[in-house]
């Protein structure tokens, strides 16, 4: 990637509100779009792309303004991820996961811990990665005096090789307690494997990682005081917030697919020789498909925005989050996750119906949108999200907080 960032990012003032930061994300997307298909094929480590995110200021979007951050909230972060993902789903995912790992200190940690992490992250423009895969219960945490040692392997570690710091997760030896800690990504004993070779989201650096006695002080164990974890209901918001980040880049990828396809239809598609129309844009079935897909996408975008606002109320008063309010929010998130998955898959596959056979050429790169959505929507079965909604409607049951609900 050789495209340089717009000069006004350095010479002009930073955005001052949510609208301005979403516009900045749109500018980032415009830069990424210039060679998105080529970068997807190359599959190179996205160092330049992460540098672009830093230069734009988006990496410190959630950081405190007093330490150089933008001081924005999650409703803006979701929209920013959606905008970036229109051009490049991989970079949108990296940015969304970065926000999640940055927020992890506030989610789990003590006030002293998260204030320190957020200040340092904003001042130093840290880019976060995470070696946190709850299905792989294969990292053990042992004590060594005032330190902890993380040992084991994680199958997935999104953002690994392009991160400044990495969130680690493991189980404290002899207990069932999960320990989270943030360490420098170049820590001794932390080895990232270049083994991410999937059909989609190819630039997310989501390969495996080995932890060979990675050392960090007990004081960095998030939420622990005197070696005991202090739980809050707010700690259990990890799943609904993660799922809304997923929704954000699914919808961004779908919107990008639709915009790219529409441009192709206007400029390259040929009308069918037996249709009786001179231009593809005048064919009734083409018009109908674009209208159908756009209406479905707009509907789920509106639902996503509404659910994000509902969640923001919980973030603004963490100590007031109850099992009831958390569960009700998770049901709403499950609903939008299910719809976003279905609509994104439909949009990214049906665009070929209205672009034509020539649009399948490798040079066009239209397939990357479907590959990206199809890859990540397998993260956790959408049927279980529909089940959360259905059981709540029929019995009033709220989802039990787990790693996936």
Notes on the structure:
Residues 244-379 form the Acyl-CoA dehydrogenase C-terminal domain. It comes from Streptomyces mutomycini. Residues 28-117 form the Acyl-CoA dehydrogenase/oxidase N-terminal domain. The protein has 405 residues and is of the alpha+beta class. It folds into three domains: 8-127, Acyl-CoA dehydrogenase/oxidase, N-terminal domain (Butyryl-Coa Dehydrogenase, subunit A, domain 1), CATH 1.10.540.10; 130-229, Beta Barrel (Butyryl-CoA Dehydrogenase, subunit A, domain 2), CATH 2.40.110; 233-395, Butyryl-CoA Dehydrogenase, subunit A, domain 3 (Up-down Bundle), CATH 1.20.140.10. 49% of the residues lie in helices and 12% in strands. The protein has twelve helices and nine strands. The chain has helices at 8-11, 18-33, 36-42, 47-56, 74-87, 89-108, 111-124, 238-267, 284-316, 323-350, 367-376, 382-395; strands at 128-131, 139-144, 147-154, 165-172, 178-184, 190-192, 209-217, 224-225, 228-229. The strands form two sheets. Strands 1, 2, 3, 4, 5, 6 and 7 form a seven-stranded mixed sheet that branches. Strands 8-9 form a two-stranded antiparallel ribbon. Helix 6 (89-108) packs antiparallel against helix 7 (111-124), helix 6 runs antiparallel to helix 8 and helix 9 (284-316) runs antiparallel to helix 10 (323-350). The radius of gyration is 22 Å and the shape is globular. The model has no long low-confidence stretch (mean pLDDT 95).
